[in-house]
Amino acid sequence: MKKKRVFGAAVLSLAMGISMFATGAFGAGTQENQDTYRVLIQGPSAEKAKVKGQYGKRWDFGKQGFTTEVNSKQYQALLKNKNIEISQVGMYTVDGRVEGNSNGKGKGKGDYTVQASYPSDQTPWGIQAVYNDNYIQSTSGGDGIKVAVLDTGINRNHIDLTDNVEQCKDFTQTSSSLVNGSCTDRQGHGTHVAGTAAANGGYDGAGVYGVAPEAELWGYKVLGDNGSGYSDDIAGAIRHAADEGVRTGTRVVISMSLGSSGKDSMIASAVDYAYSKGALVVAAAGNSGPSANTIGYPGALTNAIAVASLDNTFVNGTYKVSDFSSRGNPNTDGDYYIQEKDVEVAAPGGGIYSTAVDGNYTTMSGTSMATPHISGLAAKLWSSNKSWSNAQLRSEIQRRAKLYDIKGGTGASTGDDYASGFGFPRVK
Fold first, then answer.
1. Which residue is catalytic, options 158, 189, 192, 240?
2. N or C: fewer beta carbons within 10 Å in the chain?
3. Where is the Peptidase S8/S53 domain (predicted)?
């Protein structure tokens, strides 16, 4: 029996308010002025074993080393140990800009438990653009494909998401590397991203629709309630998603609307591992544009699809690349080949309307918002072509993008452009 919607504000089940982010660019950096440090330990096996026995481990990446948390005194002691190499684990942040939300005050809250009011737009402009249909009333596709959203979590009780959340896991807890059954989003970013990829219209079909509403969502919380997180947690989640795809015998799209300006070895290795296991990795290009060579990681990695942002603005008959959208390397324009630090494709990212953490709906902008359009498209295409490998799916996404080349929003191009990549791939 379908449940009826309730108009108005939803009832808060976790009364914890937290300010929404307003990040114009990727956040990057190390831990500063803290009492606790997350560190990567490398060196000979025997020496690593000694440190592991003394301090414990959080994530073990084999030959790459292991991570652990120590206090200031322990950190200083480790620095003096000449038998090991120690480095601080990098920080990654959400990549988006809040434009406003259901209460109009720019505040995010914890998970809500009851239905929200009806959305003002069931198929927002980004969804219509991906489907190349300005009059579409609902979407379809994605059945059997898992979309792992590595983010701030997901409000699994949102009426437009609850039936699609198949896995809910928290990789941020200090007491354990992984907590099953928990992916509470108190920030809002992850819930918004998930809706664009796979919102299913709710119980009564009157909610908002994502690109692939029949896909199964894996909500992997890798960022804290402030929108930032550690690279080892992200790397652990990437590997876990890939392994889960192998374990369940299903296709997995790993969607990451997060990033840093610097390359991290743990995440780079995890992306390569996931790709080798058959997963497709999609990541935000970053919000540090419009200058060239501003693309962030992990999007800049060769085994990740870097997604640029488009505005709902036409220039010379095509969508304009958002000014904030990070650009790749202009020296590789037109070579039809994706190298490290290249943008691969572009998708709607300016003024995107989607599911909100309070159970309602909100508008955000950023390459964070562009990324799930491509993740959803990948799920929809893969669902109809399950025999495809991840490489074949990636080639098809590129092929469709070439049909709608953008050239930085100023006209057609040949090959891949440093602002928009191959262009904007569509359903049709």
1. 189
2. N
3. 142-423
Question: Which one of 95, 102, 111, 151 is the catalytic residue?
Answer: 151
Q: Which of 235, 301, 220, 305 is nearest to 262 (CA)?
A: 301
Distance CA(392)–CA(235), nearest Å, equals: 24
The model carries a pTM of: 0.90
> Is 395 among the catalytic positions?
no
151 has catalytic annotation? yes
| Annotated catalytic residue within 177, 231, 365, 368 | 368
pLDDT tens-digit profile of 335-369? 888 999 999 999 999 999 999 999 999 999 999 99
| Sign for the pseudo-dihedral over CA of 58, 185, 123, 25 | negative
> E strands, 257-303, where?
258-259, 280-284
Cα torsion at 171, 177, 181, 183 (round to 10°)? Answer: -20
What is the total residue count of the chain?
428
Closest CA to 158 of 382, 329, 3, 19: 3
Buried b (16+ CB within 10 A) or exposed e, 318-357: bbbbbebbbbbbeebbeeeebebbbbbbbbbbbbbbbbbb
Residue 181, both tokens: 């059954």
